[in-house]
Design goal:
With 207 residues, the protein is mostly helical. It has one domain.
């Protein structure tokens, strides 16, 4: 009973400070992404947060990130087009999204689902390359909605599974931590596989 009560304390604490939690989601999506929305999904499942409002906050954060990135890209293109940072950004984009120039819509769409910071680079690079605003907004909007739903659902799944395994507060958060580690390791593995595939296509890796 004590451990269950401890989970309830955390649940009610977040519920009592829900406004700050929603602000955290928005800022978290702008700065990073996955962790803040997965955490939102966990507390939505626990009943601390409203799923619709959490989803709306994820959309606001993602849309703000897209706007900031695109606008920054335009600024850099006009005033700092020869900076080494931009060559690094272009190299990184070309490495992970080699068909960016030919198929910008799908490159922008899929970039949100990578963990290695490529999302920020893609939004900035889209502005830098002056990608059609219509294409950029459509790709970002579609990917943002799908990504937000997946991350919130993943958080709910983490919480549901952890609770079904134990209501001990320490074990609950321990299981959540293991899920996070597994999630990020999986993304790293997928990223590594993509790198190997691109190396093979480029002929820089012999098999």
């Amino acid at each position: 009973m004590m451990h269950s009560f401890s989970i309830d304390i955390i649940k009610h604490f977040v519920e009592a400070h829900a406004v700050w939690a929603y602000i955290f989601i928005i800022i978290g999506v702008i700065v990073e992404g996955e962790i803040s929305v997965i955490l939102a999904g966990i507390f939505c499942h626990l009943g601390s947060l409203n799923p619709f409002i959490a989803f709306l906050c994820a959309i606001i954060g993602g849309a703000s990130k897209s706007f900031i990135g695109y606008t920054l890209g335009l600024y850099l293109q006009r005033h700092h087009s020869h900076q080494p940072f931009l060559r690094l950004m272009e190299k990184r984009i070309s490495y992970f999204l080699p068909r960016f120039n030919k198929k910008p819509f799908w490159s922008i769409f899929i970039s949100r689902f990578f963990i290695f910071g490529i999302g920020w680079f893609t939004t900035i690079f889209s502005g830098y390359r002056k990608i059609s605003l219509k294409i950029f907004v459509r790709a970002e909007a579609m990917s943002l909605v799908i990504w937000s739903v997946i991350m919130l659902a993943l958080g709910s799944f983490f919480s549901y599974t952890a609770l079904s395994m134990s209501r001990d507060v320490r074990k609950f958060f321990g299981i959540i931590l293991l899920f996070f580690i597994g999630f990020f390791l999986l993304e790293k593995i997928i990223g590594f596989i993509i790198e190997v595939i691109e190396d093979i296509k480029d002929g820089s890796l012999d098999i």
